[in-house]
Write a structure and sequence with these properties.
Blueprint: E1 3-9, E2 15-21, H1 25-34, E3 38-44, H2 47-60, H3 63-78, H4 83-93, H5 97-111, H6 116-121, H7 129-141, H8 144-201, H9 207-221, H10 225-240, H11 244-254, H12 260-281, H13 286-296, H14 300-314, H15 319-324, H16 332-344, H17 347-404
Antiparallel strand pairs: 1-2, 1-3
């Protein structure tokens, strides 16, 4: 939808400027007027400005805004309030201006005859597919309040999952940056001064010292290589990940790297369990649930496994038996709990247990990551400075020995 820029006067008589996304200028005018503003000027933004505004508005809306919206709307629907009035009340109390505009657009779309899920689908940059799909199921079954409550819980767990991953990666990233920075400082600022001193001594330098001086000269003159190489590697990996064939092997490598696999595997298993739980509890069929889950997985190896699991289930296999064929990705705990859920009829409860279990395990990994990596970092930094110190002391030792003789 296009964006419209406006100038208007608020209730306090202050001139305000802003932008709003809508299908046409008449609806945009009505929406702005309904918010209590008196429009002075309204015009359609050009395509480039509209694209920028769209990205800026979606970036400014945080997941917590969507989670709070789902929670509040669920409470209001359970209390029996009309949907449109509930959306207006939440929009008026929203602190984020861009999110308030989104909600007013949704309200206007519903007033024009669209369903709630259809109105949400026009704002996929803010509301994820799982949100829209569950609301669509809630509309069909008359359980919108329950669907909203499930969505809020699901999105909160996804935020917890994201936070756990960030905590797990924070220490390794800090350690890598710190170690690299220390090494670059020695090579660019300290060693060149020492190498000048050694040249004035007119002594034969040991091979280790010569190697350090050569590394220092290269780093000082070609420092930009250390910036370009990581950037080029990231770009190449990004391009390779666009092709499913190469992305499959890259994702497989992530699941085999010693420390990375702990984070990736627990993250993907938690996501798989949580997605299935929320979809099955909403009444979505298992094949459709697996289809939706497949689209949310950012790992090609897991996507291929889920597609094979779906095919086996459609051919008559149990869910647990289909998952058991991929024991390299899904541990025995997953197979056992899903098997129990199938036999007792409480599959969603077992999936809920698995989701919480892998989230907790990921939290444990993030807490222990520092202790796991700390010895490696100490060995690397210690070895690096041992080489540097020996390289610097060896010429001095040779000089002292020659003076003594």
């Amino acid at each position: 939808m296009p964006y419209f820029s406006y100038k208007a006067i608020n209730e306090q008589g202050v001139m305000v400027r802003g932008s709003i996304e809508h299908s046409d200028i008449d609806h945009a005018y009505d929406n702005i007027s309904d918010s209590g503003l008196h429009i002075v000027k309204l015009q359609k933004s050009d395509s480039l400005t509209g694209l920028y505004l769209k990205k800026a508005s979606s970036w400014s809306i945080k997941p917590k805004d969507v989670i709070e919206f789902a929670k509040n709307l669920s409470v209001m629907q359970r209390a029996g309030l009309p949907l449109l009035q509930s959306i207006i009340d939440i929009a008026e109390s929203a602190e984020n201006r861009h999110f308030r505009e989104k909600l007013l657009n949704i309200r206007r779309t519903i007033e024009l005859g669209s369903g709630f899920s259809e109105a949400l689908a026009r704002h996929k940059d803010v509301f994820p597919d799982i949100f829209i799909n569950l609301i669509a199921v809630g509309e069909e079954t008359g359980r919108i309040s329950e669907s909203l409550s499930d969505v809020a819980l699901h999105l909160q767990r996804m935020e917890d999952l994201k936070s756990a991953i960030i905590r797990a990666l924070m220490y390794p990233a800090f350690a890598l940056i710190g170690t690299t920075g220390a090494l670059m400082f020695w090579l660019i600022y300290v060693l060149p001064k020492m190498s000048e001193l050694f040249k004035t001594m007119a002594i034969d330098l040991p091979p280790m010292t010569q190697a350090l001086i050569a590394a220092s000269d290269f780093t000082s003159s070609k420092w930009y290589v250390f910036i370009l190489v990581p950037v080029i590697v990231c770009i190449v990996l990004k391009l390779l990940s666009k092709y499913e064939s190469t992305k499959y092997y890259l994702d497989m490598a992530k699941l085999r790297l010693p420390i990375v696999k702990l984070i990736m595997s627990n993250k993907l298993l938690a996501l798989f369990s949580e997605q299935l739980r929320i979809l099955i509890s909403a009444g979505v069929t298992i094949d459709r649930s697996l289809d939706i889950t497949l689209t949310t997985m950012d790992n090609a190896v897991f996507r291929k496994a889920i597609a094979n699991i779906k095919e086996d289930i459609l051919l008559g296999s149990n869910i647990s038996d289909a998952i058991k064929k991929h024991d390299t990705l899904f541990p025995n705990l997953v197979v056992r709990m899903i098997s129990i859920g199938e036999s007792t009829g409480n599959l969603t409860e077992q999936l809920n247990f698995l989701s919480e279990y892998f989230l907790k395990k990921l939290d444990d990994v993030s807490e222990k990551m520092g202790k796991m990596i700390e010895p490696i970092i100490i060995i690397v930094i210690g070895g690096m400075f041992v080489v540097i110190i020996l390289g610097l002391l060896a010429p001095i030792y040779n000089l002292v020995s020659r003076m003594g003789s």
